[in-house]
Design a protein that fits this description.
By secondary structure, the protein is α+β, with helices and mostly antiparallel strands. The protein is built from three helices and two strands.
């Protein structure tokens, strides 16, 4: 149970880092730019983007670019 909570906490922290990067950006970003900004691994960024899209906190204004809902 403790291991599951640690994994869940890490996932939430990653998602928050990715969302902050989108909120602080003036323009839509590609996942590669988020990797550079946050220092997270690409798979973690991709997973966070998928979750944020599902929660409707970000959207894709054009293919392979994402932005925070303002």
């Amino acid at each position: 149970t403790v291991l599951i909570l640690k994994y869940w906490r890490k996932e939430m922290e990653n998602k928050e880092k990715v969302f902050e990067a989108f909120k602080n950006s003036e323009e839509p970003l590609r996942p590669g730019a988020i990797v550079e900004m946050t220092g997270l691994e690409k798979k973690d960024v991709d997973k966070a983007i998928k979750e944020l899209k599902k929660e409707e906190k970000i959207f894709s204004p054009k293919r392979c670019f994402y932005d925070a809902v303002k």
